[in-house]
Design a protein that fits this description.
The complex is a heterodimer of chains A (500) and B (149). Chain A is 74% helix and 1% strand. In chain A, α7 packs antiparallel against α22 (434-457) and α12 (251-266) runs antiparallel to α13. The longest helix of chain A is centred in the first third of the chain and has 34 residues, at 106-139. A two-stranded antiparallel ribbon of chain A has the order 1-2. By secondary structure, chain A is mainly alpha-helical. Chain A has one domain (2-499). Chain A is globular. Chain A has helices at 2-14, 17-35, 41-52, 57-82, 91-102, 106-139, 144-161, 166-180, 206-222, 237-240, 244-248, 251-266, 271-286, 298-314, 316-321, 328-339, 347-351, 353-374, 378-384, 389-408, 411-429, 434-457, 464-467, 469-486, 489-499, and strands spanning 183-184, 191-192. Chain B is mostly helical. Chain B folds into two domains: 3-64; 75-138, no CATH class. Chain B is 73% helix and 0% strand. The longest helix of chain B is centred in the N-terminal third of the chain and has 27 residues, at 3-29. Classes of the chains: A mainly alpha (500), B mainly alpha (149). At the A-B interface, α8, α9, α20, α21 and α22 of A face α1, α2, α3, α4 and α5 of B. Chain B: It holds the Pfam family TctB.
């Protein structure tokens, strides 16, 4: 079987000492930032981007991906112990996790979420291994018009992610696209919008934009939420062990959560948060223990955690096979690939098999590591929550500066990062989402390239985008998504959750 | 019109200005090309005009729908982060990265002001040592540790 051969290749690539180390460091850091409310996986991935440039492409991706899905494991810890989600998608886990903690069952909840996360992660990886080659094979028939349409779909999906209305989201996408045009145009060699500053000739670095918008502005916004959290419960081994009744309530919900999560993860723009919300709502509707939901039901922590971890893995499918990032973090992964000279798209699996299958294998290994890391170390992670913010944020600020500076030893980049940080903070105040901006910025150069190529091939006829069935279909889907977004999906989702 | 609405309108207005600036820059300074062979200015012109349009729609939405108050910026936090990053940029150029890291942490914790002096110095020193161990010794980033670049 071809799949087995591919997996063998992947495991061979992912089990070298270097890759195992990188994977371990990634998931460890990921759990750490996931546990800490305030620093999200996104900021962590952004901070590690410059470091990853010094690694080979495979190792870079394994590291960044490890941080990303490791954070999904860690995100539930603060949800359960403090009722403060460490990551957005863990907010659903708090619904039943925090009541469990109040009943003295925090340890049980933490162990069960680790197991649920593991089930979700593994199911997600299996879906990814089965689905990606097929999807990529299909997408290989794309011409420039279809690629352009795929990118538009990705951008529309990025807009839908934000909850601030489509006009504001789209405006951010276009601002990102425009910022992406700064620098030398590869087609004509003309310099665009640099204002005569030589440091801008190569364009603005993705790291600068990401660190500014997400790192710096995050620090500014949360630096003074300076409360030290109290985790009162002592966690010991006895209080960790779920009883027989708990165990019997894990397998069904975990698998259903994984299925829901796998599905929503592949949809660009839906992502982990939607996956865990929908998984929870579905489970609540079909469960025999309906009345316990919201009061510490075991299913209530198992389902969202399996769903968001499955979604975290399947989010890589559109990213790696089509080059559409479903979320901001995925946009950073795309950026990391491009910086290593790898063009994301349907050719990726065929051209770089050891990268793709190595990544798949590293997911399996990483999830195993996380399971081992999380269960015995539950107490340790809980203690991390006591680190005072007064110490944390200066460290984050320094890491941002070092990361940006190490890119090309250019202090102009550091100043520019501060500028983007102020922009990001202003956007927060004026209710504009930074995520669509970043995705627009990443996809901008590719969109322009495909658009110009498609226009050249069609001899200047813009109708080519709706005459070719492939691109017409994709653009139609993008349009439908926009209309659906206009109907405010968050409200629909909340209604679904309430009615359940 | 009340002040909250005016403040809220500044966001969309800035977007309109940025859109027009990009479009005008493309129109005046860059080759637009032909439909078949689009020049470097074609896309920025189109994108800039669309951004300005979206900004206008957001402006109208903001003026006609119920106003949301723009929160007061946290100037204390802005000063802390701004001073920290500026310290890093200025000191790195003159005395090297490690003293700059020390200065950055010291500046930021001083502006925030909720650690005692000894705590600030200890934190600054340990972060500088940590950066040296991880980034310079461990990852071997080609950065000059101490001394003017």
């Amino acid at each position: 079987m071809e799949l087995l051969g591919n997996l063998a290749l992947g495991f061979a690539a992912a089990t070298t000492v270097e890759m195992l180390t990188v994977c371990f460091v990634g998931v460890l850091l990921g759990t750490f930032v996931g546990v800490l409310p305030g620093i999200g996986p996104l900021a962590a991935v952004a901070m590690l981007l410059p470091v990853s440039f010094h690694l080979p492409a495979e190792a870079a991706l394994i590291l960044l991906a490890g941080v990303y899905y490791g954070a999904e494991y860690g995100g539930s810890t603060a949800s359960i112990l403090l009722n403060i989600p460490g990551t957005p998608s863990a907010s659903v886990t708090a619904l039943d996790g925090f009541p469990m903690a109040q009943k003295g069952r925090a340890g049980v909840a933490l162990v069960l979420t680790a197991i649920a996360s593991f089930v979700g992660g593994i199911v997600g990886v299996i879906v990814m291994a089965l689905l990606s080659p097929a999807l990529a094979g299909f997408a290989l028939r794309f011409g420039p018009a279809e690629y352009f349409a795929v990118m538009v779909l990705g951008l529309v999906a990025a807009t839908v992610v934000g909850g601030r209305g489509i006009v504001r989201g789209l405006a951010m996408v276009f601002l990102g696209l425009l910022l992406g045009t700064i620098g030398v145009d590869v087609n004509s060699g003309a310099t665009r919008f640099t204002g005569g500053i030589p440091d801008l000739r190569d364009g603005i670095s993705l790291v600068v934009v990401a660190m500014g918008l997400f790192g710096v502005s995050e620090v500014i916004a949360s630096i003074r939420g300076n409360t030290r959290h109290k985790v009162s419960q002592p966690l010991n081994w006895r209080s960790l062990m779920p009883n027989r009744d708990d165990w019997s309530r894990v397998p069904g919900p975990a698998l259903r959560g994984s299925a829901v999560g796998s599905f929503f993860g592949t949809l660009p723009g839906a992502g982990q948060t939607v996956a865990s919300f929908v998984g929870y709502a579905v489970e609540k509707r079909i469960s025999r223990n309906k009345d316990q939901f919201g009061h510490g039901a075991v299913e209530g922590v198992v389902v969202p955690e399996s769903a968001n971890n499955a979604a975290a893995q399947t989010a890589f499918i559109p990213t790696l096979t089509l080059g559409i990032p479903g979320s901001t973090t995925m946009a950073l992964m795309l950026g990391a690939l491009m910086i290593h000279g790898i063009t994301p798209g349907p050719r990726l699996i065929a051209d770089h098999p050891s990268l793709f299958w190595g990544l798949v294998a590293s997911f399996v290994i990483g999830n195993l590591m996380l399971l081992v890391l999380n269960i015995p170390l539950v107490g340790l992670w809980a203690r991390i929550l006591r680190v005072p913010h007064a110490m944390l944020y200066p460290i984050v600020a320094v890491l941002i500066c070092i990361g940006v500076y190490s890119l090309r030893l250019n202090l102009f980049d550091v100043w520019l990062t501060l500028g983007f940080g102020l922009l990001g903070y202003a956007m927060r105040l004026w209710r504009f989402e930074p995520a669509p901006l970043l995705i627009g910025f990443v996809l901008g150069p590719m969109i322009e390239e495909y658009f110009r190529r498609a226009m050249l091939l069609s001899r200047g006829d813009p109708l080519v985008f709706i005459e070719r069935p492939g691109s017409a279909t994709l653009l139609a889907i993008a349009l439908i998504l926009l209309v659906l977004a206009a109907l405010q999906p968050k409200k629909l989702l909340l209604r679904l959750l309430k009615s359940a | 019109m009340d002040r909250a609405r005016v403040t809220d309108a500044l966001g969309p207005l800035a977007l309109i200005a940025i859109g027009i600036a990009f479009a005008a820059g493309a129109w005046l300074n860059l080759d637009l090309g032909t439909l078949r062979r689009l020049g470097p200015g074609a896309l920025p012109l189109g994108l800039g005009l669309i951004l300005a349009t979206l900004g206008s729609i957001a402006l109208v939405q903001g003026l006609t729908q119920h106003a949301e108050r723009v929160p007061r910026p946290d100037f204390h936090a802005l000063a802390a982060v701004g001073a920290a990053i500026a310290t890093f940029a200025i000191l790195t150029e003159r005395v090297g990265v490690l003293p700059a890291v020390f200065g950055t942490v010291l500046t930021m914790t001083t502006v925030i002001g909720d650690l005692p002096w000894l705590g600030r110095l200890a934190l600054a020193l340990s972060v500088a040592i940590g950066i040296w161990l991880v980034f310079l010794l461990g990852l071997r980033l080609p950065i000059r540790a101490i001394g003017a670049g």
